Amino acid sequence: MRTRCPRTREYLPMTNPLVFFAPSGKRGRFPEGTSVLEAARKLGVDLDSVCGGRGICGRCQIEVGEGKFPKLGIVSAPDNVTEWNAVEARYVSKRGPLQEGRRLGCQARVCNDVVIDVPPDSQVHRQVVRKSAAIRDIAIEPVVALHYVEVREPDMHDPSSDFRRLQEALEEQWQLKDVTAPLESLRLLQKALRDGKWSVTVAIRHKREIVGVWPGLHEQGVGLAVDIGSTTIAAHLCDLASGEVLASSGIMNPQIRFGEDVMSRVSYVMMNPGGDVELTNAVREAIGEIATAVTKEVGLISNDILEMTVVANPIMHHLFLGLDPTELGGAPFALTIDGAYQTRAAHLNLPLSSGAYVYVLPCIAGHVGADTAGVVLSEGPYLKPEVSLLVDVGTNAEIVLGNRERLLACSSPTGPAFEGGQISSGQRAAPGAIERVRIDPATLEPRFKVIGCDLWSDEPGFAEETASLGVTGICGSGIIEAIAEMLLAGLITPDGVVDGALAARSPRVEEDGRTFRYLIREGEPRISITQNDVRAIQLGKAALYAGVRLLMDHYGVATVDRITLAGAFGSHIDVKHAMILGLVPDCELDKVGSAGNAAGTGARIALLNSSARKEIEEVVRKIEKIETAIEPSFQAHFVGAMAIPHKSDPFPHLEAELGITFKRGGDGETGRGGRERRRRG
Ligand code: FES
Known about the structure:
It is a single chain. The protein is of the alpha+beta class. Helix 8 (about 370-380) packs across helix 14 and helix 14 (about 600-610) packs across helix 15. It binds FE2/S2 (inorganic) cluster. FE2/S2 (inorganic) cluster (FES) binds next to loops. FE2/S2 (inorganic) cluster binds next to loops.
């Protein structure tokens, strides 16, 4: 828009048009004819491009603002940039129409003051919105980015290597200096250049190293985030530019055949020469299979994977990297390495892209692994003022407590009871396992739900629906609910004794040698909760609670503001029943939740955001590690926590929610108001 001199009314000499970018708010003046992409680059505006402005990748789409913007002094209109051109027409003819009002930023050239909107999908550093409001979105900050380049053909008069000319092209077209390439990428270069008629797409890691080469334009870079659990291995295939999860898969960890839990696998390594290699090969082969399966699902191959991130507990971490886990089998549980580690996928015999890297998140301590680091990265307690408690329940509970001031971590030996081990009818969470239990306090009759069927056992159709599944046992979440419900119904005392006096009231209370058991299901198999089962759960939950209290003591707090249960098991536990059992301390119930596979989400964040890697490395370095085995107060906390929910710790929020008062000190009673106590009395 031309302006007149307010005094003489003569036209002033034209200044360069002003370009204002939203939402960044960056602005600057550029000569007429500057492309929007060029202007964006000069101002550092986040506008994506793979093809470098050749009108073929479609990543640079923008919208031209329309209307008056008085604060900016701009009247913006679609014709303040050049007209739709032949390159855009060609793009649309090949790739389909652009969204209404969109232009290719590399083709639209500025011819007057203009407001340019950069939509989220055209930003490199976009946000991947996560469903829960309590957790932050994932910001994309690519570790690996794709760059399309046109490379000079070789010339007899100016001899230089293919790689030299590629380096020149990258510097000229992308301002990337001194890019390097491993041998694996160089091996692909000659053919790719010739197949692509001297144009190639290269995947460049950290703006330095070529980790993938394709002839012509290659538009999608993918990475794999892997969570190696003792039981299952889960993987998410992600688009590195958009953050979208393209495919996910989980398989059983094949190391199970060498031992059910991690300690038995360490024993296997100690007893069998070469056992460590067997275990390492088993887990790497399984990851190779997952990589093949998830890429196949979306029409790619595992060689298309440019980057992989891994979270795992310390023993899985060591076995995956091929490090001897023997030291982790006993005190002082020294890790070979605790910091984050990255190495070439080829060194780990993984069938990924020729130059791909594997980044393993840092371990926190000998019993608190990279999986917990993943949970910390995903949940971000170090960013919040509130004191959060993160618990990953397994054979070893990994516990983190704190906020942006301080974070502390420990692990506590909960034993296998929560995974169904050492429980008379216990089993892993699998179809047919009882996962929910309710007990009527008046009749002492139970009802339950099994995995794989939505009906409760007292609903019509349950028998038919479970006929093929069977009711095969009770899994961890089922046991937690069963024991919590038994307490509420008065079937067990706060000390955890199955009350034999109730045999007179219900045939479900059965004599079992010198103790009693409670029958949940008649049939084959008979499923009951024995005195020993209750004891095993008490020992496990007391260990976990004692670990939590130890961290609370060290931090100097008597309560926590938020509790997050992580891990596969954590996501299945009913938080109210977990608290009734005394697995975790009292807290407002709506601030207690499960984070699902938070460790896997942490791996995904580290895959998509290079700063997040530095962030978690620094946070983990600062976490104060508490060793429960040498803490004198652990034992006292453990003893107090054997009672259900606890010998002396208050549970005001839980009591208010349930409308009951827990009885303490082993007087054998917990009741709903006074009504229940009178009835039993
Ligand atoms: S930058 Fe690739 S189409 Fe514009």
